[in-house]
Amino acid sequence: MNRTLTATLGMALLAATGCTTIESTPSTTLAPLEVEDTAPTTVEITSPEVTYSPSTQRSLFIYNIETTINGPVYDEDGAVETGYLVCDALRTGSSIEAVMGAALDSAVTSDQVLFLTALVASAVTVFCPDMSYLIEAL
After folding, report:
1. What is the largest CA-CA distance in the chain?
2. What is the pTM of this model?
3. How far is CA 5 from the centre of its chain?
């Protein structure tokens, strides 16, 4: 029974991988297999767009910023509101350069630059992933 099941499974696997013939003998060794040459196949893998619940989005947005700046976000509500404004601006036609420029114009220290850059990147990644191609172009 095990031998029959193994042979059937083996034939199915070999057939699925492109083998053309299988010969079997009553002995415990298998005869050589003839394998058909096939052209390489390109497989495109696409991942489905991930959507999060609002509470998960908020947590992920804040987590991304805190991980980037290596510290806490003190005004989470303000950061979330600004994140949504970033997405609104991008969806209404503003360029990522204009959004980053407007954000960074208010930065005075390098810590503020890092925070605002992390905020914009996290907003696009979490709140408007359909606009992520804009960040990839930078």
Report:
1. 82
2. 0.60
3. 39
